[in-house]
Amino acid sequence: MTPAPAGFVVGIDIGGTGSRAAIAPLDGAPRFELDGPRVAVTADGSTAGELARGLLAGLREARPAEFAAVVGCGIGATGLASLVADPAGLAVSLRAEFAPPRPADAPAPAVAVAIDAVTAHLGALGGESGAIIALGTGAIAFGSDGHEIWHRVDGWGHLLGDRGGGAWIGRRALEAALLAHDGVDASGSALLAAARARFGEPAGWPAQLYTRDDRAGVLAGFVPDVVALAADGDGAALAIVSEAGAEAARSAAAALVPGLAPRVAATGGLFGAGGALAERFRETLAELRPDAELRAPLGDPLDGALRLAERAARGELVARAPSLWLA
Amino acid sequence: MTPAPAGFVVGIDIGGTGSRAAIAPLDGAPRFELDGPRVAVTADGSTAGELARGLLAGLREARPAEFAAVVGCGIGATGLASLVADPAGLAVSLRAEFAPPRPADAPAPAVAVAIDAVTAHLGALGGESGAIIALGTGAIAFGSDGHEIWHRVDGWGHLLGDRGGGAWIGRRALEAALLAHDGVDASGSALLAAARARFGEPAGWPAQLYTRDDRAGVLAGFVPDVVALAADGDGAALAIVSEAGAEAARSAAAALVPGLAPRVAATGGLFGAGGALAERFRETLAELRPDAELRAPLGDPLDGALRLAERAARGELVARAPSLWLA
């Protein structure tokens, strides 16, 4: 392994609920963090690039000296493979954000942009072989040994998949609420009451959702209520939250392809929040892959983005479209 | 009943798959029809108003003499109650489209705008008491006696409901296709092959969907393949199409509220297309409401829009937000 260059690294994590950025010294001392808005998808595609630029500008303003000494930048973003037209070009343009003023002997840092699953994997397994399942607003599983195997499962977005993620849970819960409202199935009555408290009368829900570019985030905004109702034993909420755990286990098992160590980490706030979700996840994973060890995640996707930045700085990365792009 | 004024009526039907307009003499002689694009939902809401204006301009250009003699205009549109900010204002502004050149003794016609369920009901049951279920791109059920009872079920759009409609079927089928692609559940393999043939490789699907304002129409575009596979006996496709029929029956039964005649009509292309859908619909409705008579629809929503126009011309309508607005 090449010795680490002196200096700082920047990590950025861009998701459907929010975004975060951190700048940290390579020796691992305490880092400085910023929060940013969540990603949206417009007719021009994902806003991930703009968000990343905004966060870099924020870090530069808050920590100008450290920013001038950045040697690597790692970015993980949702929808990068499918909703950003040119991820390689994005990496090049983000590298330009590190233009002078910099010391004369400090070239622009290495920049790596990756799908969120890559940074989630690096954060949770710290570079070891295995599979991760990341449940945030969306849901994506990823199996990798960091070298030859890069196997993605799901991450298809709130209309096509993201099975078990926040938007998936929110959508199912609102569907159940409206079945109660429509007089079709009363089991969603408690969800209906909770949704009314959060979103107002059902007649106004379509306008709150269909006119927005961040529909997935709006749907996921209902998750805290669903999880709370599930914890209280509400049958409809419990069924949705449990099924989310089963879906997450199926995706994780599918990501654990031959050649990988039988190791799984589950990451994202949903695993901590929902007792029933985490429980059903463990049960289903044990049925599907009794040989797999379930590891507590070492860190979160922002930790993974910093680790990616460090590897980029060391020159240890090789571009791997449609998962990883370098500049 | 007031005697019918001489002249012509205009009917417009605006949906997620396309729009249609017709101009017809009040005595029921052959009508002239135009087709238009499907509705989209942007950050400003539904494009239904623009579409209606475009169709009126097309009719005026194609049939200027008849257009100058229009005495009533009826418009049914999807999303009107929730995604058009001011449906009453829309009725007023559409009435202005009938401005002179008109004969001096011909005032601007009465204009009625309604949710699509109202025109579907009028078209299918011809003004009789009962409930209809309309399956197009979306799904909405409506129970009415034409006077006191106006009871809507579903019509919540592709993220919140529209249970059993075209977008609902398309979304479920693409989800099943991606479960096969992801190695989670192979039962969707035939759906995956069909979806590849229509939309290309899965990696390109999110960009085809999430960047568009007519997502529901894109999803519903997969329905012909799903219905064909179901007819060939493919298990995954058959399950989705059958469940759509069951959902439609549940909505229809919920719309058949006390006070209505036990009469149901099912309208929309999906009932004709899918043998399994229509069969499961009949079975489920018979279980839920064994007393209900299942009627063949008298006409389609465009017929209903013309009937609405006729009633508007006769002064027989009373405004009924959030279902019907007059100008």
TrEMBL record, chains A, B:
Stored Gene3D superfamilies: 3.30.420.40
Domain ATPase BadF/BadG/BcrA/BcrD type stretches: 10-280
> Tell me, what's a Pfam family for it?
BcrAD_BadFG
For this protein, the record's PANTHER family field holds: N-ACETYL-D-GLUCOSAMINE KINASE (PTHR43190:SF3)
**Name of the featured protein:** ATPase BadF/BadG/BcrA/BcrD type domain-containing protein
